[in-house]
Write a structure and sequence with these properties.
By secondary structure, the protein is of the alpha+beta class. The chain has a single domain, classed as Translation Initiation Factor IF3 (2-Layer Sandwich). 27% of the residues lie in helices and 38% in strands. The chain has two helices and five strands, in the order H-E-E-E-H-E-E. Strands 1-2-4-5-3 form a five-stranded mixed β-sheet. The longest helix has 18 residues.
Length: 118
């Protein structure tokens, strides 16, 4: 069981790091909300914190596809856009098991931001 936990953690870390390995900003094709992987990239930018934001992807049963970190990020971006944000500072992503209503769940969390264009 411990080996499974370690392997699962490694997969989550690899999944998040493969999203954008150079720590620059990333944007899903259908979203106008940028994802900042690193707070240092916000230095010198004028921005306002709007609030916490998260996105999820759920595997309901064993027959369903596994939860997707990419879908969790897209859902987070969509929620940030609904908050009138144009960026998210990503705090992290993880996959958890046995969440209420889900066999497995991918969750990404961050802070919704409004970055001024100067």
């Amino acid at each position: 069981m411990r080996t499974l936990s370690v392997c699962l953690l490694a997969l989550v870390l690899v999944g998040c790091s493969k999203w954008h390995t150079d720590n620059t900003t990333a944007r899903e094709p259908s979203s106008s909300v940028l994802i900042y992987q690193n707070s240092e990239l916000l230095e010198g930018k004028s921005f306002q914190k709007i609030g916490p934001v998260s996105g999820e992807s759920c595997q309901l049963s064993l027959q369903d596809p596994p939860p997707s970190l990419a879908v969790a990020r897209q859902n987070m971006q969509a929620r940030a856009a609904a908050m009138q944000a144009n960026a998210v500072l990503l705090e992290g992503c993880q996959v958890t098991r046995s969440v209420a209503g889900c066999r497995q769940q991918a969750v990404c969390q961050g802070t919704a931001l409004n970055i001024s264009s100067q």
